Each structure stands twice: as C-alpha cells, then as structure tokens.
Amino acid sequence: MFESLSDRLGSVFEKLRGKGALEEKDVNEALREVRVALLEADVALPVAKEFIGKVKERAVGSEVLRSVTPGQQVVKIVHDALIDMLGGDTDATLSFATTPPAAIMMVGLQGSGKTTSTAKIALRLQKREKKKVLMASLDTRRPAAMEQLQILGEQAEVKTLPIIAGQSPRDIANRAMEAGKLGGFDVVMLDTAGRLSIDEQLMTEIADINKATNPIETLLVVDALTGQDAVQTAEKFKQRVPVTGVVMTRIDGDARGGAALSMRAVTGAPIKFVGIGEKIDALDTFEPERMAGRILGMGDIVSLVEKASEEMDIAKAKKQAKKMAKGEFDMNDLADQFKQMRNMGGMGAILGMMPGMGKMKKMVDQAGGLDDKEIIHQEAIISSMTKKERKNPKLLNASRKKRIAAGSGTSVQAINKLIKAHRQMADMMKKMGKGGMKGMAQQLAGMGGAPGGMMPGMAGGMPDAAALAKEAKGAGTDEVDFDAIEKALSGQAPMPPGMGGLPGMGKKK
Length: 509
Description:
The chain is of the alpha/beta class. About 55% of the residues lie in helices and about 10% in strands. The protein has 3 domains: about 80 residues, Up-down Bundle (Four Helix Bundle (Hemerythrin (Met), subunit A)), CATH 1.20.120.140; about 190 residues, P-loop containing nucleotide triphosphate hydrolases (Rossmann fold, 3-Layer(aba) Sandwich), CATH 3.40.50.300; about 190 residues, Signal recognition particle, SRP54 subunit, M-domain (434 Repressor (Amino-terminal Domain), Orthogonal Bundle), CATH 1.10.260.30. The protein has an 8-stranded mixed β-sheet, sandwiched between helices.
C-alpha cells in the first residue's frame, strides 16, 4: 500500500537531505513535488492544499532553514502533518461503554467486503480482547448472505445467530440482541444489507435497525480500490446515519492510498480497521503514526515486534535460544524460521515494516528475490529429508540429494542453495550467540544479504537496531519488554527468550 506515494516522497526528501543548507525556494520546490505526489496518489484536492499549507507554514520558518539538519527537519514536519491528516488526534479504538451486549452495526455498499470484515473484527475481538461475540446477518436480500456469515463464523470459531427464514431485518436484529443478553455475550455484530448505490430504502432500513438496537459503534465498510468514490460514499453515509468509524478493505491492493489519506479530513470519521488480505485474520487496526512512518519509509518496527510476539511459543523459544547460544542450528530450525516468515506475511511484508528498507525491498522484489513460493519449495526439500539428515546436513551426499530432489519435486541445484542458506544462517546464529543481534547485523552486512541470496542488495548493512528498539519503546507496547530488547540489540545482553533469530521463534499454540 502507498507504494507510489512512498517512492515519490522518498525521492523528494532524498534531494533535500543532500543539501547542506536550505533556502526558501528549495522548500517551495520540494513542496510543489509533494503536492503533485499527493494528487497523483488520488488524495482529494482540498486535502492536499490544506496539507501543503500546514507544512509550508512550519517548513519555511527559521527553525528549519537555520537547523543543522534542515532536510531531516522538513521530513519530520511532513511526518507530523501526515499523522494529523490520517486522524492522529482521534481515538480509533472500539467503544464498549454500555451495558452488555454492545451492538456493533456494520453498514456499507454491496461488494465492499462488509460480511468478511464483520467476521474479521469478531475474530479479533474474541481472540485479542477476549470478548464473547455473536454475529448476526440482517441481509435478507442477497442470496446466501446469511449462509456466508455462518460459514465464516465456523472458520473463525465465532458464534452466529441461527437462521430463521421469513424474518425482517429489524426482527432479526431484535432476536440477535435478545440472544446476546440470554447467552451472556459481550458483543453482538450486526451485518446489515448493502446496495449497489445509496438509496432511500437502504437508509430507511439502516435507520430502523439503528433505532431498534442503539449500537455503540456503527462501522462503515468501504473498498479502498474505489479511490475517491470510497470517500464520497463515506460522506453520504455519515450525513444520514451516525457513523462512528470506517473499515477500509483491500487497502493492500491500493498502491496509491489517496482514499485512506482523504477519509478522515473529508468525512471526519476515523479509520478504525484496514483489511490487508483475504485470510480471516488479515485485519489491522489503523494507527496514523505507524501508517505515516510507512509512507515516509520509516518502517513500522512496533507492528513488526507485535507480529513476532503473537507467533511466539515461549517454551520452544527458550529451547532454541539455548541451541543457538551453542552455535547449533539444524534444518529443523531453518524450517521453523521459514514457517514464521510466512505466518508474518512473508519476507516482503517483514521488510516493508523495517525502517530504511523500502528501496531495498523494491530492488529485491524486481529481482524476484522475495518470491515466497521459493520458501515453500525449501520447506518441501527439508520435509523430504530423513530425521538424521535434518539434524546433520553434512550427511547430504550426491545420491541423497538426488533422492530428496525427486521427493520434493525440485532439483539438486535447489538443494545446494538450501544447504548454503543453512550454513550461512548457522554462521549468523554463532555470531548472535557471541555478540547478540548486533553481531548478526554485522554478519549480514558482510554477507551482502540473507541466506541463499534471498535478500540481495543488503551490502549496506542493517539499520541501527538499538535505535529501532528505542523508537518502538517510545511508541509504547505493554506486552513487549523493549528495555531487554534494546540492550540485546546493542550487544549488552543476550536476546530475551522468544526474540532470537529471525522474527518469531515458534508458533503460539
């Protein structure tokens, strides 16, 4: 997401950083390019104008022009302005300040991903916030709409209201709220019907359900791929019903991102969730500060650490940490690392959240080095090995390699590449055991990339890991011990259990 905008802004700020001192004409020229970049990213014209006005007001002041690092100061001003544009001053969390069950009404046009988003949010509330959730489909018009929510409920292991044919949407809503009370549910998700366009009948039905259930949250689901049409849809809905927040779907497929940037400024409704894929758990909260960091190539180290933390099995991590401290790293461990990469969205997603990695990710992507199918092939190779071969790769002679190639549907060359990847990873683990993550970063820099040539172009080395930990700690995450991580990244202490090696050290059971 935001690839085109991020690339354009990156080139603009690179020019600014290359100049020792800035004059007002330099800032004005840069802001003209920023404005063009925003408009090309499909940001609404009034929003782009207001944004440039705010940035210019601060950027041409003496605090920037006389600064020791004027280029960096301008980037910070743009970063702060982006946070404001994305709704940094609003609380984007869901409210449950009501007598249970709290009703959450989902509204939107047909085809926006409303039913899928209902199931995704329900799963998130049940899994992360430990809420007891009931879902109910109020869509009596679209064929199999109720059955779709029921199937999604089974996949997410979230309860759905039994289907009774012939009931009106309001009757179903009342039955859902009653079932929520009797069943001791904390939240009732109401998936309303959509239309191809906004009409009076749709708005009357939604207003009727709103009056009957008095929802604590009314979430409007819009498709990011429709660009400014999504913003206009949100504006029209907000004029007729009390929309408390927006859910943007398919934002991962929107390279421009103008709808997300314009939504808060045009409608006044905060974006609360974004859909980032088709899987039932592919949903993120919308964090303006983190999103602004991604747009400007600053990464999102907090999200990266959170994703790693979610995938951890502490007991398994401790066991692996002891092995790595001894310099032991077999094919089973490598397979675990590959699995965690996929669980976290693949190497491309991981690089996208790492500060300073935007350009490298693009270069590697163009070279075909971030194809996660290659990781799947390598996992297949490891699965075709015997237990002894996985424990001791030195046993892999020519005849064994031929057998494994036939069993995994790959080639001997692919097996040799994997062996090389394992050897280099094992060397990294030894470095890490001696000098923490700092030693591993130095090893990566010397190798010019990650194992097996999967990440070429990293000869410049990793970003300052200790600084990333400080940055993440400043953003605040209660469940992660950033002090311990910071010391480990600086080489002052061993990495805490569960954070060694590549992000994520064993799937949570």
